[in-house]
């Protein structure tokens, strides 16, 4: 039979993908596959894991504003060991599209340790280094705002793996181009952006923040113009692929079962 | 893959009731769906996009809203709703014949028991799930239901009513009368649903008296299916606890295991 060409087929570095659409870490899990055709995705990115289990931030952790969502989850996750022992086998069994593991460390050393552990595991096509979570103190954003640190991190990890090494950047910086370039120079094979931007909502009745932690991460429709602008700048600064997020698709994908025809 | 666990549904609203104050009921009809439902479970629901005029659509909330199953008589499923914000206001505008978007039933319901002396305690919009629950329990148990609201617009049929402003029934907080009722009616089990401070007060009493107590908790939700960890609440013991998801592990919890002082 004649093979039907898929016009959406693309690649990310060495990775062949059914479509250029991936999911945003933390907003999509296996449950969501009940609503869409998995093969429509280019890759599956899991929720960020850290070296040790993280309880996450105190509630309330969410608030929907007039133009998007505030969250303060705080990277609640079972930790690397449990992820490898319990989650990874299920992901391997369920996924037909490439798995990209998102992870974050509290130090360069921890990032390195985690990568080494994950390198020993099969069924992983790439990594997304989350250096951009606005909701935690140690892991996350402290790395992503300093070009030198981003460079060091990528230079440290890129020789250790042949898998895709995506760096997920934060919009909370002065010049995204410089950071993006630092990641490329360090050996990252792709960039993804943006993670959530700092945001806040106040309950007018008592003057208190709607989130227990005060400030959270802002995603959704309100950040789209910013996300577009930063993606544009980032893409101009480097030659490696840039994956865009910021209400491009996830909102719809998460909350609707419509699938891809509505993009 | 296993068969789908979650389904996105669109159902026509076949009738709508306007109640006192800001309360209203939306009814749908689906016998197969009704068979899957249990008291204490909820649906994520949202007004179908097409009902709103074009200008309004831009500001329509994206998120589905968690709403308990209020009634389920062979597939005649009711949602008893109070308008409080954008999401519930969009639902308020729906008329018979309009489309409702649903995901569910979700979460774990109340445990079913027989031969017990049960006190039901509800506050404000905690009323609806207990209505469905008492219909199932009443044939097999002795029931007494107390409900509290802020004023005469927040009270509904039950055995005993309290209002904060004294405009209907007894004046005060619904929790004030609980100790006496437990003793008088030899209560050995409590089911509760309402605002956190009410549940906390109630749990304080049942913990002291060592009475079994299941409560249904409210949390701000985004996905409703266990993906985002936005709805987490602290559960466990002082030195061994975790944030569990209200949408997945709940919404019904053993009140003795919720860490009320960590909210
Ligand atoms: C398991 C479960 C079952 C529920 N069942 C029912 C039901 O049967 N009937 C019903 O009317 N409501 C029910 N609720 C509450 C309902 O989900 C909220 O009222 C609704 O999400 C508010 O959305 P909104 O967009 O209208 O308000 P928003 O614009 O989001 O918020 C308006 C105000 O309400 C507060 N608020 C919003 N959501 C919540 C929440 N979930 N808990 C506490 N405060 C909140 C906000 O802080 C804000 O002050 C239930 C909630 C849960 C978790
Ligand atoms: C509830 C929630 C949880 C998130 N968790 C993570 C996470 O664990 N790791 C991560 O890299 N980004 C996380 N993000 C950020 C998203 O992946 C994405 O970068 C951001 O939401 C912007 O895209 P959007 O507007 O399309 O949602 C989270 C976002 C939300 C709303
Ligand atoms: S609402 Fe997303 S995990 Fe409960």
Polypeptide structure, described:
The complex is a heterodimer of chains A (263) and B (263). With 263 residues, chain A is α/β, with parallel strands linked by helices. Chain A has helices spanning 80-94, 108-119, 141-144, 147-157, 176-186, 224-237, 250-255, and strands at 10-12, 15-17, 44-45, 49-50, 62-65, 68-71, 99-104, 126-130, 164-168, 190-193, 197-199, 202-203, 208-209, 216-219, 242-244. Chain A starts with 9 loop residues before the first strand and ends in an 8-residue tail after the last helix. Mean pLDDT of chain A is 86; it is low at 249-263. The N and C termini of chain B lie far apart (38 Å). Chain B has 263 residues and is α/β, with parallel strands linked by helices. Residues 50-55 of chain B have low confidence and may be disordered. Chain B has helices at residues 31-36, 54-57, 86-92, 127-137, 178-184, 196-209, and strands at 8-12, 15-18, 23-29, 42-47, 65-68, 71-73, 76-82, 99-106, 117-123, 142-149, 160-163, 170-171, 189-193, 212-216, 232-237, 240-245, 252-254. In chain B, the strands form four sheets. A seven-stranded mixed β-sheet of chain B has the order 12-11-10-9-13-14-17, with helices on both faces. In chain B, strand 13 (189-193), helix 6 (196-209) and strand 14 form a beta-alpha-beta unit. Chain B is globular and about 50 Å long. The interface between A and B is medium-sized, with 32 and 33 residues. FE2/S2 (inorganic) cluster is lined by residues 221-224, 226-231, 245, 247 of chain B.
């Amino acid at each position: 039979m004649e093979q039907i060409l898929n016009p959406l087929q693309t690649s990310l570095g060495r990775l062949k993908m059914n479509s250029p659409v991936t999911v945003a870490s933390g907003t999509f899990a296996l449950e969501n596959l009940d609503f869409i055709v998995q093969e429509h995705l280019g890759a599956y990115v899991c929720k960020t894991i850290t070296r040790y289990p993280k309880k996450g931030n105190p509630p309330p952790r969410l608030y929907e504003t007039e133009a998007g969502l505030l969250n303060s989850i705080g990277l609640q996750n079972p930790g690397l060991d449990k992820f490898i022992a319990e989650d990874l086998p299920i992901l391997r069994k369920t996924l037909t599209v490439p798995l990209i593991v998102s992870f974050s460390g509290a130090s360069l050393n921890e990032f390195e340790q985690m990568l080494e552990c994950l390198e020993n595991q099969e069924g992983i096509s790439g990594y997304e280094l989350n250096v951009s979570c606005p909701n935690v103190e140690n892991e996350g954003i402290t790395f992503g705002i300093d070009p030198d640190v981003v460079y060091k991190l990528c230079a440290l990890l890129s020789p250790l793996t042949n898998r895709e090494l995506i760096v997920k950047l934060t919009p909370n910086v002065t010049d995204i181009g410089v950071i993006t370039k630092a990641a490329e120079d360090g050996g990252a094979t792709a960039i993804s952006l943006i993670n959530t931007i700092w945001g806040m909502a106040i309950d007018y009745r008592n003057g208190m923040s709607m989130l227990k932690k005060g400030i959270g991460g802002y995603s959704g429709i309100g950040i789209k113009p910013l996300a577009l602008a930063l993606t544009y700048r980032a893409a101009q600064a480097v030659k490696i692929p840039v994956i865009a997020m910021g209400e491009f698709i996830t909102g719809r994908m998460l909350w609707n079962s419509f699938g891809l025809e509505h993009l | 893959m296993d068969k789908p666990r979650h389904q996105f549904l669109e159902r026509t609203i076949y009738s709508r009731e306007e109640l006192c104050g800001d309360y209203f009921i939306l009814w749908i009809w689906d016998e197969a769906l009704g068979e899957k439902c249990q008291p204490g479970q909820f649906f994520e629901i949202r007004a179908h996009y097409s009902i709103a005029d074009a200008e309004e659509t831009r500001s329509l909330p994206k998120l589905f809203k968690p709403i308990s199953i209020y009634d389920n008589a062979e597939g005649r499923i009711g949602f008893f709703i109070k308008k409080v914000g954008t999401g519930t206001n969009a639902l308020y505008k729906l008329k018979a014949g309009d489309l409702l978007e649903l995901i569910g039933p979700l979460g774990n319901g109340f445990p079913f028991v027989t031969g017990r002396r049960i006190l039901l305690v509800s506050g404000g919009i905690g009323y609806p799930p207990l209505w469905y629950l008492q219909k199932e329990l009443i044939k097999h148990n002795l029931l007494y239901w107390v409900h509290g609201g802020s004023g005469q617009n927040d009270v509904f049929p039950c055995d005993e009513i309290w209002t904060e402003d004294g405009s209907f029934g007894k004046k005060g907080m619904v929790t004030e009368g609980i100790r006496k009722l437990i003793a008088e009616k030899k209560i050995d089990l409590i089911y509760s649903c309402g605002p956190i401070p009410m549940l906390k007060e109630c749990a304080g009493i049942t913990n002291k008296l060592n009475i079994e107590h299941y409560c249904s908790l409210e949390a701000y939700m985004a996905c409703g299916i266990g993906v985002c960890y936005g709805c987490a609440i602290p559960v466990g013991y002082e030195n061994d606890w975790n944030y569990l998801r209200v949408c997945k592990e709940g919404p019904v919890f053993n009140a003795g295991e919720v860490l009320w002082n960590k909210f």
